[in-house]
Design a protein that fits this description.
Helix content: 25-40%
Strand order of the largest sheet: 3-4-5-7-6
CATH class of the largest domain: Alpha Beta
Number of domains: 2
Number of helices: 4
CATH topology of the largest domain: Phosphorylase Kinase, domain 1
């Protein structure tokens, strides 16, 4: 049997939730049945939902940071949740400015966790994203990625960093 599945969520959306999985079997000849679920994808959506729940307080939240950036003329497009546990974060979200500056904000349970998360991010992703800077404010980190070193992106990066550090 061939299994055709429709998953009711796309990627890591702004508010990723467990997908609704609809499956139907289409008989085309003798073969082993394929499971109707995709455990890895469901596990990812479950983890994202868990990270979103019970977010830390007493630190600039992703919503506050993104709103402040937007009010300063740096709105984020394609806002998405990222997997925070890769760097020990409780929750991460970000996107790109209209000018192309990459922005990621991650919330941690405590300040030492944020410092450790910054170090882990630098070690794990530094070679993949060489034009980036990570800034810590309380229990939150802001990662700024400049795909190209242009005057416009450098200006956006400095503006974003200044706004974040004042929150």
């Amino acid at each position: 049997m061939i299994l055709a599945a429709c998953v009711g969520a796309a990627g890591c959306s702004k508010y990723a939730e467990a997908p609704a999985v609809v499956a139907r079997a289409v008989k085309t000849g003798p073969s082993a049945e394929v499971p109707a679920t995709q455990p890895a994808q469901i596990a990812l959506f479950t983890t994202l939902a868990e990270e979103k729940a019970g977010r830390p307080t007493g630190t600039p939240s992703t919503d506050v940071v993104i709103d402040a950036l937007s009010q300063a003329g740096l709105p984020l497009e394609q806002r998405k949740q990222f997997l925070g546990k890769l760097i020990g974060a409780h929750y991460c979200e970000g996107g790109r400015t209209t000018g192309g500056l990459g922005v990621s904000i991650c919330e941690f349970n405590d300040a030492p966790g944020a410092i450790a998360g910054k170090a882990l991010s630098e070690k794990s992703f530094g070679k993949l994203f060489p034009n980036r800077e990570i800034v810590v404010n309380k229990k939150t980190i802001l990662t700024i990625v400049e795909p190209q070193k242009t005057a416009a992106l450098m200006s956006q990066a400095e503006t974003a960093k200044g706004i974040f550090l004042k929150l």
